[in-house]
Specification:
The complex is a heterodimer of chains A (261) and B (512).
Chain A lengths: L1 H11 L8 E12 L2 E12 L3 E5 L6 H8 L7 E6 L2 E2 L4 H10 E4 L11 H11 L5 H14 L15 H13 L5 E5 L7 H16 L3 E5 L3 H7 L2 E6 L2 E6 L1 H6 L4 H10 L1
Helix pairs in contact in A: 4-5, 4-6, 5-6, 6-7
Chain B lengths: L1 H16 L7 H33 L28 H35 L3 H16 L2 H13 L9 E2 L5 E3 L2 E4 L1 E4 L3 H29 L5 H19 L6 H14 L2 H27 L10 H23 L1 H22 L8 E4 L2 E3 L6 E2 L4 E3 L1 H27 L3 H9 L4 H31 L11 H12 L2 H30 L5
Antiparallel strand pairs in B: 1-6, 2-3, 3-8, 4-5, 6-7
Helix pairs in contact in B: 3-4, 3-12, 3-15, 4-12, 5-12, 6-7, 8-11, 9-10, 9-11, 12-14, 13-14, 14-16, 15-16
Classes of the chains: A alpha/beta (261), B mainly alpha (512).
Chain lengths: 261, 512
């Protein structure tokens, strides 16, 4: 409990108004063939801020979040991550990727490696850490996500919720400044969603900068500093959770909320 | 409570006792298994009897005595072109088939991997060329391809009639393709000992470098170091290999040892090894059937297996003990092997491990041909070789491409997202998963390639089928020759399957 209090006080001590802008998107557009997935998206995310991106299916949420670590390539506009612009420069891309952690909808764990090796692979080969140190870090991360006893199992032997928690630990092992979550709970059974959301809440309380694409309204209300609502590749409305859930200005947002609440 | 439970179990018992035989699953299983066995044995008995009667009525002798008799065969190529016995002739054919299969598998794999990766390339031209290669070669029947290559090769200019060495390193004519021969010379066995020592050193160096990598995290290039170590030993070995001539004396000692061991000791040794393995199998078998609480439950299939394995082991032990031939054969061949190795090490200090010779042309009789100095690929060999290699490479390429594409895109994305470079994610994520998908169909292709070499008969390459056909045309022993063919191909196929399955089981991804 005391832990939580100190952590939440870290969260309350934040000075978001004066915090550094860590992700800056300016007029980002992207097409898949003739289909425009992103239409002039501009937004900034500050250090230690938790941003939840909402919107109906096909609104471009996932495409946008995947552009931020260059899993998708934007065609127009600029994306700056911690002062590094994402361009065709491979060195910039690698620098951004090693500072941004990503959690996928389908977990994407490496099935041929044990849980411990899944987590320590990148620290060993990218950060050039000694194996012993990387494995020790893996153990403490597993402790943090609540499954220290699963270290020697293979991903195929774990439940969905456990796999997603391993995926979070794998992303954290690179000690990222930003964590991206692409619908982390959409592939999970209802009773497993909570265990993953709890880990994400703990992460938010510890002051991590997070950008979360999700359909979990409870999580958005409770944890988000800012909610962005997307529709047709555009950001329709941005605001605090109170503003968004109680007093939305846009018609489209009202329609969306009336359908899901 | 207890009495009612007892009552329950007694009624259960009563019910199970009342099951009539024709509905009892256990009885049905035993009866069908034994019945099937009886049918198979009876059919074989009947077929063999029929064949025997017919052969006798036509006065055809089915014995294997032709293996010992001198045949009237000249083989076009092989380890022995005028074999002394029919058995020797078939042996030469088997060696030719195996040689073709091994060389073919190596080259087809290499070529197939290159073409498969080319087809995945982003370069438009390379991709289309690889596609053209695959679609052309796998859609033309192998036999047609072989005959085509053979026709092209035999249409080449004839060997010029003057004998003597050739200018240049390669020579192509209607007698085939001749290239320089690199051969092992007297010092080879001493040199290979140096290389073996180098391998041991490389093993330790690799482990030590690997440990350093684990401790400090820096790139220690363990595999490159090991490779360099072996190369260094191999190069130094060329100059210093005579220091290993003493190894010959070790082999001499082993040869005398094998000469002096009594056969009874060998029998006891083999029997105890058999008993050791049988008991270990039984222990593991019981352990695998025991539940977590230690309760042993055997189903009928388990009992079948135990009966079969037990009978097999008993028969093996009885054969080993009662038939001295096996033990003395082991002793004799061991002695011969070590004596041969001893002789290989008895060379003078100046012997070189390798020699190389340029191709030459000789004219023993009316026609000129390549001499033994060069390494010559006969038109027959070349036709079969290019046929099986090109044909199989098309299938291997598709397997490689399929295997790599079958690794989900999310895996590569996850690798990118944690910051792995392209080569790192290929090495640690894509290849380990692709290999597991690629291996089983590759084993299939290796089996196909080995069996396809039997088409060599169409272009006159002396493989086991061609030699066997000549033998039975001359002796009329068609059934024994066919039996030898089938056993030979069965042995090849089983060997390949065992190797591939071993890897499949070891590499399997653990799931629930």
């Amino acid at each position: 409990m005391t832990d939580n209090e100190t952590e939440s006080s870290i969260r309350e001590d934040r000075d978001l108004a004066n915090a550094k802008e860590i992700i800056v998107c300016e007029g980002v557009s992207k097409w898949f063939g003739d289909f425009q997935a992103l239409n002039n998206v501009s937004a900034t995310i500050k250090e230690q801020e938790v941003v939840v991106v909402l919107g109906p299916s096909g609104s471009g949420k996932s495409t946008w979040i995947r552009c931020i670590n260059r899993l998708e390539q934007h065609q127009e506009g600029r994306i700056m991550v911690d002062g590094v612009e994402l361009s065709n420069d491979l060195r910039n891309i690698e620098k951004v990727r090693s500072e941004v952690g990503m959690v996928f909808q389908m977990f994407n764990l490496f099935p041929h490696l044990t849980v411990r090796d899944n987590i320590s692979l990148a620290p060993i080969w990218v950060r050039k850490k000694p194996r012993a140190e990387a494995e020790e870090q893996a153990s403490s991360l597993l402790e943090r996500v609540g499954i220290p006893e699963q270290a020697d199992k293979f991903p195929g032997q774990l439940s969905g919720g456990q796999q997603q928690r391993v995926a979070i630990a794998r992303a954290l092992a690179m000690e990222p400044k930003i964590m991206l979550f692409d619908e982390p709970t959409s592939a999970l059974d209802p009773e497993m969603i909570k265990e993953v959301l709890d880990v994400m809440k703990e992460l938010a309380l510890s002051g991590m900068t997070m950008m979360v694409v999700t359909h979990e309204m409870g999580f958005a209300k409770e944890v988000a500093d800012k909610i962005m609502f997307m529709e047709g590749g555009q950001i329709v409305e941005t605001g605090t959770p109170e503003h968004f859930f109680t007093n939305p200005t846009e018609e489209r947002t009202k329609l969306f909320l009336s359908q899901i609440l | 409570m207890q009495s009612s439970a007892e009552e329950n179990s007694s009624t259960l018992k009563a019910v199970s006792q009342r099951v009539p035989l024709w509905r009892d699953v256990v009885v049905i299983k035993w009866v069908t298994q034994l019945g099937l066995l009886a049918v198979v044995v009876a059919s074989l008995w009947f077929l063999a009897g029929q064949a025997g009667d017919n052969l006798q009525a036509r006065n055809i002798n089915t014995g294997f005595d032709f293996l010992e008799r001198p045949p009237d065969i000249q083989l076009s190529e092989g380890i022995d072109t005028s074999p002394a016995t029919g058995g020797r002739a078939l042996w030469v054919g088997m060696v030719n088939t195996l040689r073709m299969a091994v060389v073919g598998i190596i080259f087809a794999t290499f070529l197939g991997v290159v073409v498969g990766l080319a087809r995945l390339s982003n370069n438009w031209l390379i991709k289309r060329l690889a596609g053209l290669w695959i679609e052309t070669l796998r859609n033309v029947p192998l036999l047609v391809q072989m005959i085509f290559y053979f026709a092209v090769l035999t249409a080449l200019p004839r060997v010029t009639l003057d004998s003597g060495p050739i200018h240049g390193w390669f020579h192509v004519s209607n007698k085939g393709i001749s290239m320089p021969r690199v051969f092992i010379s007297d010092g080879f066995y001493q040199w290979i000992t140096v290389v073996a020592v180098g391998c041991i050193a490389a093993y330790f160096i690799r482990n030590q470098r690997g440990k350093k990598h684990d401790l400090t995290g820096e790139d220690t290039h363990a595999a490159s170091w090991a490779f360099l170590t072996i190369c260094t030993f191999a190069i130094i070995g060329i100059f210093v290999h005579p220091i290993f001539s003493f190894v010959g004396e070790i082999f001499a000692g082993l040869a005398t040892l094998f000469e002096n061991i009594p056969t009874t000791l060998v029998k006891i040794l083999i029997a105890s090894v058999l008993i050791f393995f049988a008991s270990r199998w039984i222990r593991n078998f019981f352990a695998s059937r025991r539940s977590a609480t230690g309760h042993l439950s055997l189903i009928d299939d388990d009992i079948f297996r135990m009966v079969f394995v037990g009978t097999g082991a008993l028969i093996a032990i009885i054969v080993v003990i009662s038939w001295t031939g096996i033990s003395s054969w082991i002793l004799n061949s061991g002695r011969d092997l070590f004596q041969m190795l001893e002789a290989k090490f008895e060379v003078d200090g100046a012997a070189r491990p390798f020699g190389a010779m340029k191709p030459d042309i000789v004219k023993p009789g009316k026609f000129a041909n390549y001499g033994i100095n060069g390494l010559t690929m006969s038109p027959g060999f070349a036709a079969v070789f290019f046929g099986v290699v090109f044909y199989t490479s098309a299938f291997v390429a598709e397997i490689i491409r399929g295997g790599i594409l079958a690794v989900p895109k999310g895996q590569i994305e996850a690798g990118n997202a944690v910051g792995l470079s392209r080569s790192q994610s290929l090495r640690h994520i894509v290849l380990p998963q692709a290999i597991r998908i690629i291996l089983p169909p590759m084993g299939n292709q290796y089996l196909n390639l080995t069996k396809n070499t039997s088409l060599a008969i169409a272009v006159g390459y002396s493989d086991i089928v061609q030699v066997g056909q000549t033998v039975y045309n001359q002796t009329g022993k068609s059934l024994p020759v066919m039996a030898i063919w089938m056993l030979f191909y069965l042995a090849c196929s089983l060997t390949i399957s065992v190797i591939v399955n071993y890897y499949n089981v070891r590499m399997k991804i653990v799931e629930r």
